[in-house]
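Page 37, top half.
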Amino acid sequence: MSRKLAVLGLLLTGFFIQTNNIWAVENTSCSRDALQKVTDSYISALKKGDSSLMPIASGAKYIENRKPVAFKSGIWQGPVVVDFYRSFIDTEACETYTEVISATGEHPYVIGTRIKISDDKVTEVEALVTDKDDWLFNAANYLKYSPKEKWDILLPEMRSSRETLIRVANAYFDVFKDFSTANDVPWNIPCARLEGGIYTNPDDKPDASCTGGPPLEGSVEIANRRFIVDVDMGTVIGLADFGARDGWPDSHIFRVENGKVRYVHTLTVCPNGCELPAPKPSPKK
């Protein structure tokens, strides 16, 4: 009996070792380094206008401004000048998000791209491609201000949990519907917003606030919220529809340091023009 138990123990030990090894192999594709390599391949492909330079899985999807299209369509019809980019890595969701600024090419763009990876292969690419017809678009300003900001890996003591980062993003989005919740957002001083190309702290003032220009006094729904989280970078990206379901395709990037919002970057696509809905009248007292 003892020999049988010993053999069984060895078999079980081997099983758990094998299982753990399998688990490790399956998750290496979601390591920070592996996801960064795939993201770098996206930038190389974008520069050459050739999506096949990415490790694309069979049946992979490409979505541009919320519409499924072929990989050879949309932004992939030719090379894109990449003046600057910054990537964020979500190892838990096995996704990345990259802010791409193309300001000096023949057709300026600012692009926000989510990439889904499985087994080191790209299974889905979703891009918000903004240009001159979109909300406050100014690629030259985006290039002027975004690279100057500090978006490095945070020290562990400066980081927030995944849940906290998502809660911060939701609190910000909630203000658009209910302005009375504005104090729920943990604002930092200084803080700066880069919205389409308009920058709230061009003079780099140490006391700059992000609370100026309240968002429509609580008149707009931010629907279909999805999040990509890079805990190491203190960053959460919120993808949503601005103005209720099927509203404007929108992304907000939040940099959170010591639990407070330091930077906000916004891209919003206006498929049918950028006229905002009128703010709702204040309730009568």
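Page 37, bottom half:
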Amino acid sequence: MAVVLLAEAVFIAALNWFLGVVVDRQDMSLAGLDPDVMATSSKVGGIVFGGYFALCALVAALVAIRDRAPAGFGRVLLISAAVVHGLLGAFAWGLVGWTAFLAMVVVLGLIVLLLMTYDRAAGPEGAGGGAPGRGDAPAKRKEPAAAPAGAGAPASRTDEPQDGDDGPQDSVPAQVTAPVTTTP
């Protein structure tokens, strides 16, 4: 995924730079705009969008290296890249053709796959049962070894709840009231 986004970053930057050079050499005005401004803005836009996609590629590479779901700014960046590819795909269908649309949809699908691959609750450890309580089998409580009788050992633990076993409970019992009729 990171390689695809990095290749796209280089392609977008090179394409916009090439278009800036073409506009500069044509020395033609579009609706009264200065050709130098159009050439410069095309080159700057290519650098900005190329940097944006390169940053998305960096986030995708970090996700692969860390083997964790993207979080915070990286997640927002990848979601915005998915939206951009959806919009570019829609425009590409009408302006360029179905092949450009297909390329944009493939990249969009890869970004969505990257975002949806990791389960945020369990993480990659949950699949292999790495962390206690997160695998398929419930975690078992280890019982202390029994001490020899008469050595002053405490009584064995029963299955009744002890202090700290359950979550906090209300100290005042809830009062149950009978429903009141509202019509005579």
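Margin note: The mean pLDDT is 79.
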